[in-house]
Design a protein that fits this description.
The chain has helices spanning about 5-20, 35-45, 50-60, 105-115, 130-140, 150-155; strands spanning about 35, 65-70, 75-80, 100-105, 125, 145-150, 160, 170, 180. The chain is an alpha+beta fold. It folds into two domains: about 5-80, RNA 2'-phosphotransferase, Tpt1/KptA family, N-terminal domain (Arc Repressor Mutant, subunit A), CATH 1.10.10; about 100-180, ADP-ribosylation fold, CATH 3.20.170.30. The strands form three sheets. A three-stranded antiparallel beta sheet has the order 1-3-2. A hairpin with a 5-residue loop joins strand 7 (about 160) and strand 8 (about 170). The longest helix is centred in the N-terminal third of the chain and has 17 residues, at about 5-20. The radius of gyration is 17 Å and the shape is globular. The N and C termini lie far apart (about 40 Å).
C-alpha cells in the first residue's frame, strides 16, 4: 500500500470511527468498537475496497496510532478524538506534573480567557511532551504551546485518562491552570 493511499484510508477511518459511522452504514458499540469484517464490508459497499492486510498496515503505520484492535483482533476502534458518544472505558490515571496543549495564535486569547474546552469532541486532548504539542498546533498555522498544571488540576479533583495512543484526556482545563510556554 503506497503512502498516499495509506493517508487517505487513515483519514477515511478517522471520519467513520470518530465522527460519522452512519456515513458508512455502521454502528459503533457503546465503547466505540465495530467488527473488522463489518467495517471492511461497509467500506466495500462505498467503493473503498480494503483487505485486512491493508487495514493492518494502516493501523500499524499510523504515526499517531489513531486506531486499535480489540484483544481478539476481531474489532477496531479509534483510540480517542470521538465527537460521537462512546465510553472508551479508560481508567482515571494520575497525570505527570505538567502536560501540554498545542494550538495556534489566533485561538490563544479565547483559550486564555475561557480555558480549554472539548469543542466538538468528548474530551480536551493533551500531550505528554512539547514536541507532540508543537505538531498538533502546526496543523492549523504557527504553533503555540500551552503548559497545563496537571498536578494542581489533579489535586483539585480533576480526572485524567490516557488513551491507548498516549493522548491525555480530561473534561476541561480552566484558564488558571494554563501558562504560555516561553519560546
Amino acid at each position: 500500500m503506497d503512502e498516499k493511499r495509506t493517508v487517505k484510508t487513515s483519514k477515511t477511518l478517522s471520519r467513520i470511527l470518530r465522527h460519522d459511522p452512519g456515513s458508512a452504514g455502521i454502528t459503533l458499540d457503546e465503547a466505540g468498537w465495530v467488527r473488522v469484517d463489518t467495517l471492511l464490508a461497509a467500506l466495500a459497499r462505498r467503493g473503498t475496497r480494503l483487505s485486512r492486510a491493508e487495514l493492518d498496515h494502516v493501523v500499524e503505520t499510523n504515526n499517531k496510532r489513531r486506531f486499535a484492535y480489540s484483544e481478539d483482533g476481531l474489532s477496531i476502534r479509534a483510540s480517542q478524538g470521538h465527537s460521537v458518544a462512546v465510553d472508551l472505558g479508560l481508567a482515571a490515571t494520575e497525570p505527570p506534573p505538567v502536560l501540554y496543549h498545542g494550538t495556534t495564535g489566533r485561538a490563544l486569547d479565547a483559550i486564555l480567557q475561557e480555558g480549554l474546552r472539548p469543542m466538538s469532541r468528548q474530551d480536551v486532548h493533551l500531550s505528554a511532551d512539547t514536541e507532540t504539542a508543537v505538531r498538533v498546533g502546526s496543523r492549523h498555522g504557527r504553533p503555540v504551546v500551552l503548559v497545563v498544571d496537571a498536578a494542581a488540576m489533579s489535586a483539585a479533583g480533576h480526572v485524567f485518562r490516557v488513551s491507548a495512543n498516549g493522548v491525555w484526556l480530561t473534561d476541561t482545563v480552566a484558564p488558571e491552570y494554563l501558562t504560555l510556554q516561553a519560546s
